[in-house]
Specification:
Elements (H helix, E strand, L loop, with lengths): L1 H10 L5 H22 L8 H12 L11 H26 L2 H4 L4 H17 L1 H8 L5 H11 L4 H29 L7 H28 L6
Helix pairs in contact: 2-3, 2-4, 3-9, 3-10, 4-8, 4-9, 6-7, 6-8, 7-8, 7-9
Length: 221
């Protein structure tokens, strides 16, 4: 029995939303979102596609025999995302930039640069909300906000707002699609690819604007 359970655990692909949902259900959603938003090592986890696919599964539109309860998924997603962000913030206040300095992941450091730019350009409240919708940045911004001494009350209020918008919006989006299109699971891979592409769009646009600002004649003035 133990050997069979170990084999199942080994077969789970943490980058595949359906594999995670099939193995761990709503609890898996909470754990993955906590890791992605609270632990720097979780920057590669599929938060966007996991939430969207979970919504499809709740509607019976994906996952085969897997079926999840929509209220359970919404609660698990909110708990994982909100607790993870808060943990990341307090870890940042204690460990500061040393947390980032220990990592050699280029993508993580690029995310840190984007996160700091968001905080500088948009202010604390707007940056904390916007970061939820940008992969990698939503992982790095929380400890960075703590390291930069963003006021605890400001961070908490706006990370709650952004976290609920992110988790609820993507989950209900998947649920609505799964409820309205028969056999939507046939198109799951293209749909998930589109979700990932859309989630990366803000990061690409911000990088393009940054290059344009550096290239402009008055950029150094």
């Amino acid at each position: 029995m133990a050997a069979a359970q170990f084999a199942v655990a080994q077969a789970v692909n943490v980058l595949d939303a359906r594999s995670l949902l099939s193995a761990y259900g709503a609890i898996g959603i909470a754990v993955v979102l906590f890791a992605e938003t609270g632990l720097l090592v979780g920057f590669f986890l599929p938060g966007d596609s996991l939430l969207f696919t979970a919504g499809l599964v709740c509607a019976g539109g994906a996952g085969g025999s897997v079926h999840l309860s929509l209220p359970q998924v919404l609660v698990a997603a909110a708990v994982g995302a909100l607790a993870g962000a808060q943990f990341g913030y307090w870890a940042g206040r204690r460990g500061g930039r040393a947390l980032l300095a220990r990592s050699r992941a280029r993508k993580l450091h690029e995310g840190a640069a984007r996160a700091e730019e968001l905080l500088t350009r948009y202010g604390h409240a707007k940056a904390v909300v916007l970061a939820r919708f940008v992969p990698v940045v939503r992982t790095v911004l929380n400890p960075l906000a703590g390291a930069l001494d963003v006021p605890p009350r400001v961070f908490t209020v706006w990370q709650l707002t952004g976290g609920l918008l992110w988790t609820t919006g993507l989950t209900l989006g998947g649920y609505a699609l799964g409820s309205s299109i028969p056999n939507v699971d046939r198109y799951l891979l293209p749909v998930v690819a589109l979700i990932v592409l859309v989630s990366l769009t803000p990061l690409a646009l911000e990088a393009r604007r940054a290059r344009a600002r550096r290239a402009s004649p008055g950029a150094s003035q």
